[in-house]
Amino acid sequence: MGLLPLFVAIPLFSALLLGFIEHKKGIMHTLVMLTTSALVILAFATPLQRGFYFVGGHHPFVGITLMLDPLNRLLLIVVQILVFVASWYSIGYMEQYTAKSRYFSFVFLMLAGMNGIVITADFFNLYVYMEIATIASYALVAYGGKAHELEASFKYLVLGSISSLFILLGIALIYSQTAALNMMVVAQRLDVTNPITWLIITVFAAGFGLKSALFPFHSWLPDAHSSAPAPVSAILSGVLIKVVGIYVLLRFFYNIIGVDQAPLTLIAWLGALSSLVGVLLAMGQHDFKRLLACHSVSQVGYIFIGIGLGTPLGLIGALLHIVNHSAFKSLLFLSAGSVEYATGERNFHSMGGLAKVMPWTNAASFIGFTSIGGVPPLNGFWSKLILIIACVSSGQWILGLIIVVVAIMTLTLFPKIQKYVFLGDLPSKFRNVKESPWSMILPMLVLCFFCIVLGALVVVPVLRETYFLPAVQALLSGKWLGVFQNAP
Amino acid sequence: MIYALCIVLFLLGLYGVLVKKNLIKIIISLAMMNNAINLFFILLAYRKNGVVPILSFLQPNANLYETAVDPLPQALVLTSVVIGLGVTALMVALAIRLYYVYGTFDITKMRKLRG
Amino acid sequence: MVEISIFILLVFMIIGMVFVLEMKNLLSAVVMMGAIDFGLSVIFLLLSAPDLAIVQIAVAVISLVIMIRATIHREIVETPSQESTFSSRVVMLCFLFLFFILIYPAFSLLPIFGEPIFAESASSSMKYLLEGMTQTGSPNIVTAIVLDFRAYDTLGEAIVLFTSVLGAVSVLRYRNRKKPGSST
What we know:
The complex is a heterotrimer of chains A (about 500), B (about 120) and C (about 180).
Chain A: H1 6-18, H2 25-45, E1 51-54, E2 65-68, H3 70-93, H4 100-119, H5 123-141, H6 147-178, H7 183-189, H8 195-211, H9 220-227, H10 230-256, H11 261-283, H12 288-309, H13 312-343, H14 354-357, H15 359-373, H16 379-393, H17 397-422, H18 438-453, H19 456-459, H20 461-476
Antiparallel strand pairs in A: 1-2
Helix pairs in contact in A: 1-2, 1-4, 2-3, 3-4, 3-10, 3-13, 3-18, 3-20, 4-5, 4-10, 5-6, 5-10, 6-8, 6-9, 8-10, 9-10, 9-12, 10-12, 10-13, 11-12, 11-17, 12-13, 12-16, 12-17, 13-15, 13-16, 13-18, 13-20, 15-17, 15-18, 16-17
Chain B: H1 2-19, H2 23-45, H3 64-67, H4 71-102
Chain C: H1 2-22, H2 26-46, H3 50-71, H4 86-109, H5 124-136, H6 141-149, H7 151-171
């Protein structure tokens, strides 16, 4: 368990170090690649059992406890791989912007914040690291400095701060009831029958729902995620909303207050609504990245349906969709970025025929589209299938029907874009367009590989038993009771 | 009753954020929301006639565990006050930059976002 | 006595907040914000939190400086076009009032003011008060928590400040892209 603090320490150290090597490009790129690949290796090297790390050697009652169990191990692996891929891509892509080293500093700060959220077992610590991750993301959204990017960043900042304050209010209420901040101790002491607990649930659901763009609070996401530079959009849509919003809600509902069907049902229905709203919003867009961002709302809705069902199968579907969505949505954002990098254009109605000049990007986005549309051998199919089966088997026919309808709408949406962007005649203004550099294509191919094989996470027994089912089991084991029972 | 007033301050801030159309007003409202939550935290920590959780010559015979107020929320709020300052600084930077682009703090005049 | 003083100060802060919301001149609103922040600092002092009062004053001063820097020499009068329509304001007020009414019963379930829950159970705060001095050597228990027991949070706090300052610097760089003519 001595490895755990490294997940925060390494990116922080690199983020600070990057400030000193602003003008040495070669060293900067080496440092970025070394840091991110080291973190990927570290994530795989973490042990499989649940374990704790006590910061400063203090007893969990008085100090801060870090925790690793199969669920956050899975998320750690996803986060490290995705940030690795996105930073690799950024080396080529961010050439068009100034102050590249500062960009990587923000990415690493965001990574440190996300890792801090995932491994912590302390409510206030969660808040602090959540602020690091989100403040870095506000700065990254405004990174391009164009008017609409600044506006999107401001909007995101206002709504993000409101949600953070709601979460802080929830933490204060929890503290007033339990006089503890450690999640395990809170799980034991929080009286679920007390009406205050309902207030805490409401405040937390509002706060984390805002962070993860659940239905009534989704309006910021399309602006923020489409305004950021492409690799940042990939990180934001791929992992940040899941780590900051969905993961914490999962922990809170399943491990801290214990499963209670009433709020979960509400969440499932909000998820269904946001999946419908997201896909309808996506249908009206002309902007490649904005469409993808709108579509993220609907995929988050899927995940919330799975969470809200509360059955093991629903959770399997939700977790698998978290992993899958981070693979294919990031892939699509990266290929949209590649198209934008080569043509300077994001409105797909004015594109066309790019398949001839950008064959690799074409192939990558084709795999991304088939995967997000749920075509059988690719990963998107498996999670959608499991979610539908879960809905049907728990008797929620309408939810299952909504998933099917949204899946069909998604399936019809994306071939259209593929046609507009890559097929047809090449407009004359794009005659001189060149394929993006290899440093951008290779990361996309890595994500393509994941899109193709991630279905194996449920199909191949070895992977399922080591990586996936323990994570579901960690949630289904219910409230954390009797972990740290005795006060020192 | 004091809790209720504290929440009133919080809701007034929320009202300002949601209704006001001026960047500076929004920033001030958010800072007030943060203040209200910080105050709420400290109110929860107060013990009647509580002493400061500091061992000193001013209160040499104090049995802190019997008389002092709760020190933990103070430590937490210390952190969250500074975080609030950071958020405010970033927001002001964005507001100044937006002013540079549009020549106003009025968000009704900022309509570059499609949607 | 403490309770009444806090009550009066809070009412003052709420009135100040209403003024902030209704003032047309932004500079006055910013100054009013500074006044509210100082009121908060006094409340912290009354609630036996001197460390916090000091930090609050420092933060209030810094944010006042930042905000005045943002508003001075700029168009600082809120024009009527910037106001939401009367009906939307009323709707929002009604909504928030309803929310307040809904959560009002919860206040009676919170620990009574002046009788916090930490004193009754085996809580971490009791542990700090009992052993903070011997374990860390700091007579100030709050400092002991901030710099020893929960130093990891303080690291996070420093990083938040670092991130936001870096963010402000990054936002305020006026040349963002390398291609000429495409910035802003």
